[in-house]
């Protein structure tokens, strides 16, 4: 029996997803624990056999890809904690993340921020700081400014902060993907911070100071008011397409203060 064009397209899409997952595992250069390695190997072989036989994979066949991607997205501490996919899927972290339609990484980052903010009332702080619309985003309550100091854990991806955000002495080397700050954003004394991601959006003033490792600001930077850069000695240039105060390039010069 010859597969119809729609089936061929579906098979091609499936093969592309499989290849994409293989590439992601190789790119991250993460050594898989024995149980994870065997899990991935077993499912890859089964799906490759399905592909060779030109059969359509079931939803259950495809589910393993999302589980592996979720494990790959974990920080090192949680990858060590979850040495198998079953351990991860049976964990409280997984249940709480699924309930909020976010990843385990997002959930654990929010928990760690709340615990550092108020160790004795971390559950209350968690509810005060974070809201979960159910679409993969983490949203901060509009009435709250966020102030994080001496934080050594990861920040959650897809985090939208409606007010001001001050990040001091953060230990990470990069900011998370799709972080959006509605008010002013001050980043100071983050000694390991190397880059600002592409398409970064700050609604108010963006001030970066005393970040000696910062060498790159990603393309598509958009700042609502002013851009202030102080004592970031490795940073030599701004991206080619940035916008400050609604102005681009040389037109924005009066809204940028840069003292390296």
Write a brief caption for the model:
The chain is α/β, with parallel strands linked by helices and 260 residues long. The protein is built from eight helices and 16 strands. Strand 1 (130-131) and strand 2 form a beta hairpin.
Relative helix content: 25-40%
What is the count of distinct domains? Answer: 2
Number of strands: 16
Question: What's the mean pLDDT score?
Answer: 87
Poorly predicted runs are none
Order of helices and strands: HHHHHHHHEEEEEEEEEEEEEEEE
Number of helices: 8
Query: How can the largest sheet be summarized?
Result: 8 strands, mixed
Give, in spatial order, the strands making up the sheet with the most strands. Answer: 1-2-4-6-9-12-14-15
Question: What is the 3D shape?
Answer: globular
Q: Indicate the radius of gyration in whole angstroms.
A: 22 Å
Strand residues, percent:
15-25%
The span between the termini is 68 Å
Structural class: alpha/beta
Care to describe what's here?
It is built from eight helices and 16 strands. It has 260 residues and is α/β, with parallel strands linked by helices. The chain has two domains: 5-90; 104-259. A hairpin with a 2-residue loop joins strand 14 (243-244) and strand 15. Helix 1 runs antiparallel to helix 2 (34-52). The longest helix is centred in the N-terminal third of the chain and has 24 residues, at 5-28. It starts with a helix and ends with a strand. The relative contact order is 0.06.
